[in-house]
Write a structure and sequence with these properties.
The complex is a heterodimer. Chain A has 23 helices and two strands. Chain A is mainly alpha-helical. The radius of gyration of chain A is 39 Å and the shape is elongated. Classes of the chains: A mainly alpha, B mainly alpha.
Chain lengths: 422, 231
């Protein structure tokens, strides 16, 4: 019996030793074991196309990454030491939501089709050195986002291949008020690529689900500019947009997209000098005036006024469209709350012309010169045109007659004529 | 009239004071036309070049207003001179438009058309000169009034609806155009291009014309001077 027990114990022990040894041979390697090979800066593998890829892992970068406390096998589950080619890492195993929304994006859809130019998780987030977006050293830190996106979006080959907006649009962002605020002033509150375009679910603006789709733009800008959004929603443009009128302007129609600049910047599409052109982009269009029963000749009737000429020649203090009509809160003149409603005109004009009272505000302002809209001015213009035209005609006639008469007189007076002349 | 002048067959037509007034008018109207039309036709590239030359639309306005003030001063001086001075009063009388001027005009038409052998006999000022004088005077008054209304726009706004100021702009501009046409088609023809004076009637500089010219073009004035023994 005792022998039997000893044998049994020996067998169990042997089995335990064997199995533990066996386990040790097949067990997942620790970080230090992986680093035995991957700590070597010269380790690399050859690709079929003749290029080589470094297999070196910077341990320090890994340790300070967000995954630094995990082990290699958390992501590389099939890793043994040594090992052949490993399976692709699936971030979605832990980051399911991100993977799901990525798969709906242009990047994800193309990636699924096998296009390798488009970014995968690691192109934006990094591989072994992934850091939290809040970490200033992260590729996805707000102040680093632009650089991360521009790695591809400033690449002309990629732009041409996928018919993307050209470099100008990308470079323009860096000069825009948002770009300057983040790049030059280092403000994290300023809009970077992802604030407008979204991150994982990024889509081109012509797709209804896109964050930059026309209908989504006011809300999107309103995330950071809620006060403006509130005013805009009450305006004729905002109401039109919410009613689904695609022609009704959203933020970007006046302010631009990547080019957005301060009002005080002369290059801005909403600067004093440029605003008439920006507004008349719609308001001088025959179709729009007709469809929405708006007054015509908005641009020329303004540009021919003293205000228009002064603004054209750089006198920024002269009234432009927004000085009278308002900015985000624009309302039609028929609305009693509108700054250009008849009842409010004395106040609106009075901002610059304190003497402009109710008497001054009678009649229409910058209308097309037609009998229906501005009879007085039209009549005077017609009168002068006819008068000057007739006068010129009569002058020429008189001059012609006189020269003809003189020529006759001369012929008569000339030698051989009746009188002769010295 | 000096003996030397008489010997040379010269007659005084414009006294020094009138020549000075005329010179002022010439320079000021030219300045006003250049600065004014640049604004009126501001979308034209030549106009834009002129406005830039004048140092922008603000400075253009200053130049225009300085010239305007001088022109109005010239006008006021001229009115007083014509109404009150010894030289002005008879001049003004000779500038009145009468029945005779209409007859002269019709006669000249008949003559030029070959329907009559008689050319009208003009005094110092014929219908051409009178038309020029009164046309310019009415024009300058009208353009001064509208110009002042627009200059003092804050003041005007108290009394007038915007429509009136819109009309003032239109009248001011077209009146300028009218004046320009009058000057460049009528006056330049009469004093430069007309066969009797080509290339120039010198009286606006020297004040004098030849007695021969006066006899041909203004025979009544010639005869009057002869009677008075001034020729």
């Amino acid at each position: 019996m005792k022998r039997m027990i000893r044998h049994y114990l020996a067998a169990v022990l042997a089995a335990a030793v064997l199995s533990s040894a066996g386990l040790a041979a097949g067990a997942a390697p620790g970080v230090s074991e992986c680093m035995d090979c991957h700590g070597d800066k010269t380790i690399e593998k050859s690709l079929p196309n003749g290029k080589t890829v470094s297999l070196y892992v910077d341990l320090q970068a890994y340790n300070s990454s967000v995954h630094g406390k995990d082990s290699c096998v958390t992501c590389h589950a099939d890793a043994k030491a040594p090992h052949e080619k490993l399976k692709k890492v699936s971030c979605g195993k832990c980051h399911g939501d991100a993977e799901k929304s990525y798969s709906t994006s242009s990047h994800g859809i193309m990636r699924a089709k096998g296009v390798t130019d488009v970014p995968a998780c690691y192109d934006c987030h990094g591989m072994h050195d992934i850091r939290k977006a809040k970490d200033p050293a992260a590729r996805t830190f707000r102040l680093n986002i632009v650089e991360t996106c521009l790695r591809c979006h400033k690449d002309q080959a990629i732009e041409q291949k996928y018919n993307l907006p050209d470099q100008k649009a990308m470079v323009a962002y860096e000069q825009s008020v948002h770009g300057m605020a983040s790049k030059k002033s280092g403000l994290t509150g300023s809009a970077v690529c992802i604030d407008c375009h979204g991150n994982h679910a990024i889509l081109p603006g012509d797709q209804p689900r896109s964050a930059t789709h026309r209908q989504a733009i006011p809300t999107m800008c309103g995330k950071c500019h809620p006060g403006i959004l509130e005013k805009y929603e009450k305006s004729v443009h905002g109401k039109g947009m919410r009613a689904g009128i695609a022609e009704s302007p959203v933020c970007t129609d006046c302010h631009g997209e990547h080019t957005i600049a301060r009002v005080s910047d002369p290059s801005s599409s909403v600067s004093s000098r440029n605003i008439p052109k920006t507004c008349s982009g719609c308001h001088d269009k025959e179709g729009i005036s007709t469809r929405y029963a708006l007054p015509k000749k908005r641009f020329s009737s303004y540009m021919d006024s003293f205000h228009g000429i002064a603004v054209e020649y750089g006198m920024t203090k002269a009234a432009n469209c927004s000085s009278c009509h308002g900015v985000h809160e624009i309302l039609p003149a028929s609305d009693p709350a509108s700054s250009v409603n008849k009842a409010n005109l004395p106040k609106t004009c009075g901002k610059c012309h304190p003497n402009a009272g109710p008497n001054f505000a009678k009649g229409d302002v910058h209308v097309e010169i037609s009998p229906k809209k501005a009879m007085g001015v039209f009549a005077v213009r017609v009168f002068y045109t006819l008068f000057i035209g007739t006068l010129v005609f009569l002058f020429v006639l008189h001059v012609g007659l006189e020269l003809y008469g003189r020529w006759n007189r001369r012929k008569e007076k000339a030698p051989g004529g009746k009188e002769g002349r010295s | 009239m000096s003996h030397a002048d008489l010997a040379a067959g010269k007659v005084i037509r414009m006294s020094l004071l009138f020549r000075v007034q005329h010179l002022f008018l010439t320079v000021l109207l030219t300045v006003l036309a250049i600065t004014g039309f640049a604004l009126m036709y501001h979308e034209n590239s030549l106009a834009q070049w002129i406005i830039r030359l004048e140092g922008g639309v603000h400075n253009r306005g200053i130049v225009h207003r300085i010239a305007a003030v001088l022109l109005m001063a010239n006008l006021v001086y001229h009115v007083f001179y014509m109404l009150l001075s010894r030289e002005g009063k008879p001049e003004l009388r000779q500038l009145f438009i009468g029945r005779q001027d209409i007859d002269d005009f019709l006669q000249s038409l008949r003559y030029n058309l070959g329907m009559s052998k008689e050319y009208p006999r003009f005094g110092k000022y014929g219908y051409k000169e009178k038309f020029q004088y009164w046309g310019a005077s009415v024009g300058i008054v009208l353009i001064s009034v509208t110009g002042l209304m627009l200059w003092a726009e804050e003041f005007s706004m108290v009394f007038f609806p915007k429509l009136v100021l819109d009309l003032a702009i239109i009248i001011h501009g077209y009146q300028g155009l009218l004046g320009f046409v009058l000057l460049y088609l009528w006056h330049i023809y009469n004093v430069h291009l007309h066969p009797s004076v080509f290339p120039m009637n010198p009286s606006w500089i020297t004040g004098k014309v030849s007695a021969e010219w006066l006899r041909e073009e203004h025979p009544l004035e010639y005869e009057k001077l002869k009677e008075e023994g001034l020729l």
